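$ fold --in a.seq
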Amino acid sequence: MVFTAIGALALTGCGDDGGSKDKTDDGAATGGSSKPSVTLPKLDGEKISVAAVWTGPEQANFTKVLDEFEARTGATVTFVPAQDPIVNFLGTKIAGGQPPDVAMIPQVGAIQQAVAKKWAKPVGAEAKAQLSKNYAKVWQDLGAVDGTQYGVYFKAANKSLVWYNAKAFENAGASEPKTWKDFIATAETVSASGVTPVSVGGADGWTLTDWFENIYLSQAGPEKYDQLAAHEIKWTDPSVKDALTTLAELFGKPALISGGADGALQTEFPVSVTQTFTGGDQPKGAMVFEGDFVSVNIAQTEAKIGTDAKVFPFPAVGADSPVVTGGDAAVALKDGKGAQALLTWLASTDAAKIWAEAGGFISPNKALDAAAYPNDVQRKIAEALIAAGDDVRFDMSDQAPQSFGGTPGKGEWKTLQDFLKNPKDIAGTQAKLESDAAKAWTS
């Protein structure tokens, strides 16, 4: 999938939808909107709990979605803060006899584990009808296991973007790079101006998997990407060596990374963003790579998107710039009318519209009017995602068993953190990745 150029687009600030709206008798928001796109049951007095790893602005925006569900159904919904790895968190809750009704699961592999452990409940007819109407087949398939639908993908992400401090670029005389070679040259130009060019949130191993996946998809191509994602080829394959060699062109130059390797490994993802957009034209890093959700963290600074903070597609290593997507799926862990009604709601256009208007969100719902997004960049990113249809390539580590692709301090996360520290050891990195992957796929 080729990502359309968005770097030159004018951006406006992200904002909410302007506060509360009048409600109709059935709880649907009016405010000039058309009639509700989904019919929900009355659930007066019913209590529903939803677990998710979201915090801060993401949790606050998801709560707006849950509030509208409450208004329409009469149910009471409680948000349960979860931790990564979410399968372990859910296992503890289930062992204690207190599973949430619904969990927002951020990895395909974790959905498969929840099904294998017989925790997950199949999606009901009403939610499936919404999925069939509103989603491309690829998003339905990602939430299915052996032909049975278990997950409703609510939140998607374009994880192939580089955000940059416009003033730092201007002072350095740097321009937006289109290729990996240009990206490294741009980093050197920014470095020569006295600003460290790249901020890396290496304390969170998932950011490093995203670096690898974007390079791999662009360099090796979609077919190889699918094979490696399914462990149909080994991590000792020459294509993995090529991608790690390319990544080492950045990781092997500590002067290009804020704090060097040691500093990056102590920098969590939110800080990697905020330190890029604080300090005026002397930030700790001039660029930060990550998805559209970076806008949520930029909003925690004084930087304005479109003037102080700009964005360009991940540079092409091969013929095309890559687009790697991620997403969070709602999975019912309890039988019951409430859990199924919530899945139906989250599969609807009305639910997607609420968070889209609040910003920091991309929906895989193809029926959502792109006008709901608060700025041109998010609108174009969403349109590109929908236009890709079934050609979307989902985050590779999120497709893996969680022990390999989604556990802090283990598997791919830990090995790529070690690689950031010692990018010369490409063969050793490949061997460790393959060893961990082989165990994960056979356990």
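$ fold --in b.seq
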Amino acid sequence: MYSLRKSTLAALGTAGLASLLGGCSFEPALRVPHSPSDQVPYTAGPSPKQTATAPGPAGHAQTLEYGQDLDREWWTLFHSKALDTLIAVGLKNSPTVAQAQAQLEEARAVARENASIFFPQVSGSLSAERAKSSSAAFGGNKGGFRYSLVTGSLNVSYYPDIFGVNRLVYRNSEALVRYQQWELEAARLTLTGNIVTAAVNVAATQAQIEATRAIIAQEQKLLQLTENQYRAGAITYLSVVNQRSQLAAEMATLPPLEQQLAVYRHQLAVLVGQFPAEAKVPDFRLSDLHLPEKIPVSLSSELLKQRPDIQAAMAQMQAANAVIGEARAQFYPTVKLTAALGDTASNPNLFFNPISSIWSLVGSLSQPIFQGGKLRAQEAQARAAYEVVYQQYRSTILGAFEQVANALRALEHDAETLKAQQEALESARSALHLVESSYRAGATDYLSLLTAEVQYDNAKIAVIKAQSQRYQDTAALLVALGGGWWTQKNDMPAPVAEPSSAAQAPASTS
């Protein structure tokens, strides 16, 4: 009875010590780098508020509405049903998104596994033994005796979280769950951005092909006109040769454009998780895409919350911070409580008889004394690892602000470029018509006509490129701002809840 009372008091004392020190933690305060305030613009100098206008498709002004939220399905701002459908297929079938989802499920399973340490571990055992024992060990000279033994027990073990090690291990895994959640959101955002960019490339390349074919048709007519003038003796044969060379050069630009179109179509097929030969890629046209006129731009402080890559980097910092606490806690004792309750008897009929009952209650403590510098090296390693992810977080923030700033300036300059290219195209078109009329009348030489042709061809292709660039940079800005997932927070995976029993966060640092 005395030994039972003594063991019980020892166990209760250990549990009391665990309760007293349970609020202690060796996890350092999270160190977060400086970020600009909302009053600081994204760009060097005043941020653009409205872009210039230009004649023709995709030439209207774009208004940048600072402090406004994006729509989650940001690509719907382009008002293309074909694009909406393709993105829906991509989000459903993309292997990169599916991989990120599987990694999230794996991280959740690891977190649940680590959460089990907060609770007692209970196991049962049952054994039956038949043995012969020698009597010589007891000084006898007989042949020994035989016996049977049946033992069954219920075993319980528990690690009191005295210094918060268990909680730190769990917080590390919980942070990694959040990291995988944001990686999944980043995979979705990257996928939608790539699909929109590839769709714009398809539309732009298709427009260049159509423009090139129209130019080739015009060159063929000019070649026929030049040959007729040569037959009439109005020009030399050199003009015919030059026009044929111009036609051949223009025709040579068509196959690379068709190859590029095939590459973009194949890219779209793979992005939506399909084989190029089986995918049904829509025939995108620039005229089918609506350039967003009003673009919401989040404030600087909100960008840190809305960019999935920034949130993922923050989760990595939190995980690394918990590892530092784990390394510091290794210098202190580890306590383990074990208990067993069961029966053992030589006859199964006596198995549940009170005289056959057995029990044990054990409390153990282990304290590192000399590890050859191992523990300090582990702590130094954890701190260095935290510095790595800290600098990665800084780089991620700087990169995000750089992307937004570049995209804002790009929208401003793209509009100015398109305006200038449209004016150049109109001038080249007027000049070509005048030179053609003069050439037909014999008042202008062929060199002037050839120069006007080249200028018009280049201007027409340049306008198409400038139009597509506005679409691409608009998509780049919307992606750089985070894509708008936060307007429907219920779609974000819920973080794993920390157990409330023995895993409460510490109130102070000890």
